[in-house]
Design goal:
33% of the residues lie in helices and 18% in strands. It has 393 residues and is an alpha+beta fold. The chain has 12 helices and 15 strands. α6 packs across α7. The longest helix has 21 residues. A hairpin with a 2-residue loop joins β8 and β9.
């Protein structure tokens, strides 16, 4: 006797409701800052990258390779770029997915042992925590995937000046992130492409004893809140990991070659396809090709914000209107629940794979464009549409 497909669908829906209940209970807070070597069980000479594993980790995508080269120089493993490339291409320096270590990292940023990480923990369950890259402030960024030597100076400043000051400030006063997210959304942030209002709220919530240069760094970096919120979304969704039969998406990320997702029912497995290329307005008239999607920050969009929030955050969407003219008309039936803090804002949460079909309006990711050559760095804001087949299995 053939099985009833409706019964199978009902079972998935029931599993997703249970998964979302766990997500709603999490209270993410920024609770600390630590070196990667102290926070994680990192094997020797290992670097962590965004997205699913590379088919051959000795041959990462160009933007991630450039960030990895800079990390090799920063750690003192290599004297020049050629030596660093050789260490990577021969496997003497290992490249592993950051999410295997409960870490999320933006765009092409690579995490090395000395990297300062933001600890995001659950105020309702302090043993439940994850890590995200600590922003290095404005200026050259490792997340843009270039080989600008000025990035090394920014890494040094982040790890030797910024991180210790923030660690001291957070030691007795963790910062709750959901209220800051709520303030940002009310003011028009989508919490991915734009976090400026949430970041202003973050600055107001920080201890008054922080050094002036640290206060200025946070205030002059409108996207400082971004990596904290990436960690918060990862932590909330990770609470659903292992919910048997659930199709709730826990991760939506790219490594510059493949885009992948993980679901609650089978959290260790990456489902991947060829990564699409983000589109959007360029900062300049550069003709450098855009890298295929790279970064773990799609976890925000999988949670239900980012591009999924553009129905309400019209100001954020305006710059990308030529690439998505009417986000307010999207009907995201694959967002299946509500968070009590965001429900009145008409912002549903929880991307369910089984609800995505070839006929639905597809989920989108508000992710920046970086140079596909591994040299140009940031090219502009972007919007990425993962292929329907990624969700269809």
């Amino acid at each position: 006797m053939a099985s009833d497909p409706r019964a199978g669908m009902d079972a998935v829906e029931s599993a997703n409701r249970a998964a979302l209940t766990k997500v709603r209970l999490v209270r993410p807070q920024w609770s600390g800052v630590a070196e990667a070597r102290r926070a994680l069980p990192l094997p020797d000479r290992t670097l962590l990258h965004a997205g699913p594993p590379f088919e051959d980790p000795r041959d990462p995508s160009p933007p991630i390779l450039s960030s990895a080269v800079l990390c090799c120089l920063y750690e003192g493993w290599a004297r020049n770029e050629e030596e660093a490339e050789r260490l990577i291409s021969t496997g003497q320096v290992r490249m592993l997915p950051a999410q295997s270590f409960s870490v999320v990292t933006p765009l092409a940023a690579v995490i090395s042992p000395s990297t300062a990480l933001a600890e995001i923990s659950d105020a309702a369950n302090p043993g439940h925590r994850c890590w995200s890259l600590l922003s290095s402030g404005s200026g050259p960024q490792i997340r843009f995937g270039s080989r600008d030597p000025a990035i090394l100076e920014r890494l040094y400043w982040r790890d030797r000046i910024l991180a210790p000051a923030l660690r001291k400030g957070l030691a007795t006063r963790p910062v709750a992130l959901l209220p800051l997210a709520r303030l940002g959304l009310e003011a028009g942030d989508d919490l991915h492409a734009q976090t400026s209002h949430a970041n202003t709220a973050l600055c107001a919530a920080m201890p008054s004893t922080l050094p002036v240069e640290v206060v200025e760094c946070l205030g002059n970096t409108p996207l400082f809140f971004l990596t904290l919120w990436m960690g918060a979304c990862h932590l909330m969704l990770a609470a659903a990991a292992g919910e048997a039969g659930s199709s709730l998406v826990l991760a939506l990320a790219g490594n510059g070659r493949r885009v992948g997702l993980r679901v609650a029912g089978d959290p260790a497995c990456w489902h991947t396809r060829a990564a699409p290329v983000p589109e959007g307005p360029r900062i300049s008239a550069s003709a450098v090709p855009v890298s295929p999607m790279v970064g773990d920050s799609g976890v925000i969009d999988a949670f239900g914000l980012g591009a999924q929030a553009w129905r309400c955050c019209s100001g954020v969407a305006e710059a990308l209107a030529p690439w998505w003219p009417n986000p307010a008309e999207a009907s995201p039936d694959w967002l299946i629940g509500a968070h009590p803090l965001f429900e009145d804002l008409q912002l549903p949460i929880g991307l369910a794979c089984h609800r995505v079909t070839a006929d639905t309006d597809l989920p989108r990711v508000a992710i920046a464009m970086v140079g596909g050559d591994g040299r140009a760095g940031l090219l502009g804001r972007g919007l990425c549409v993962p292929p329907a087949s990624l969700f269809l299995g």
